[in-house]
Every structure is written in structure tokens, then in C-alpha cells.
Design goal:
Helix content: 25-40%
Order of helices and strands: EHEHEHEHEHEEEEHEE
Structural class: alpha/beta
Mean pLDDT: 97
Strand order of the largest sheet: 3-2-1-4-5-7-8
Number of strands: 11
Low-confidence stretches: none
Bound molecules: 5-O-phosphono-beta-D-ribofuranosylamine
Shape: globular
Largest sheet: 7 strands, mixed
Distance between the termini: 43 Å
Amino acid sequence: MKLGVLISGRGSNLQALMAATARDDYPAEIALVVSNQPQAAGLERARDAGLATAAFDHRDFADRQGFEAEIDASLRGAGVELVCLAGFMRLLTAGFLEGWPDRVVNIHPSLLPAFPGIHVHEQVVASGTRFSGCTVHFVRPEMDAGPIIIQSLVPVRPGDDADTLAARVLATEHQCYPKAVKWIAEGRVRINGDLVEVDGAGTPQMAAINPI
Ligand code: GRF
């Protein structure tokens, strides 16, 4: 399956997908990396690895439609079959998403539907919740919404700040995103309304309690 990865910054999730897709037995490859930030560090990572890249600075466009039309055309030109948002900081409109039905996925650094939006880790720490994690989900027009494919669970520790929590969550993001994309590429993921079924995937038995 050909992937298009959309980024805006650092690109560590892109890197995780690059590492996964480099393996012979992985059922997907990255056909194109697109950024709305021409200076994104992730573009450099992609170019260094010999991947095709494109940058469309959203500030160069009069409206969202024009910006998205360029992205859409570049993805289609590269033969992309699944669009992976990886730290892409622009909302995609319903119009764009209609052209990619159930073909856009996102990773978010919280246990959705809790803590959508930005400044996630600050909010999690301030809330006093004992757990956080990440979510990979199909994208719907509402921000950080859509059927959930996989989540990780990470404890919030005494003394955590946004940075220490972000690092702990990020390590699990790098595990979850390649796994979810692999399942999709293998044709094992089915959407039933708001629910996702993954054929052949297991479920952990344990309950996690924090603090212990
Ligand atoms: C990640 O935390 C991701 O969940 C969020 O934005 C961040 C992107 O990080 N959507 P990176 O660019 O992949 O390193």
C-alpha cells in the first residue's frame, strides 16, 4: 500500500513509519511526504532517506480549498492510497476528506476522546488524570475525532511536566502508528459506525492501576 505522510514539524512519527516501511515484510511503502512548513525538519529526514517530498506553505494560498487542492493532486500523482497525518497542524476540510473516504488516519498524543486539540500534555498534567497515551484513528472533519484503531496507555507520574509526559507518550506513538498502518495495509481493519474491528488482533488481559 502506498502511503502519503503529511507533516508540519520534527517528523519523529514519520521516522517510525520510515523505519517500519524499510523492512522487507512490511506491507506498505512511503510514496510521498508532504509538509505545509517548507522548513520542517521531517522533510530533511525524508529527503536524506531518498523519499519524494513536497512542500505547500498554507500562507501562500488565498483559501483552504486551494491549499488542499495542491496536496490532493500531489498525493494522487504519487499514487497514494492511504494518507497518514503525522504531526500535521492543519485541519483538513470535509471536502478534502470526501475524496479520501476512510483513507486518512491521524495520530494524537492523548487517550481520545479525552484531550483533543493542542497543548495536550500540559492539560493532561494539570488535570490530575493518572493515565495518558496515544490514539491512532480514522480522520473525520471534526478535530481529533473519528473511529479509533489503536491506543497506548502510559502512566502520568508524580513530578511529570508536559515534556517528560510527552516523551513517554511519544515512545508509544512510534510503536502504535506503524502497527495501525500495517493492519490497514493488510486489509484487517473494518469500520462499523464509530467502532473499528481489527481481524486477528488480541486484547491485553490486565487492568492498569496507578498509583500502586
Ligand atoms: C506527535 O505527538 C503527534 O501525536 C502529534 O504531533 C506530534 C508530532 O510529532 N499529532 P512528530 O513530528 O511526529 O515528531
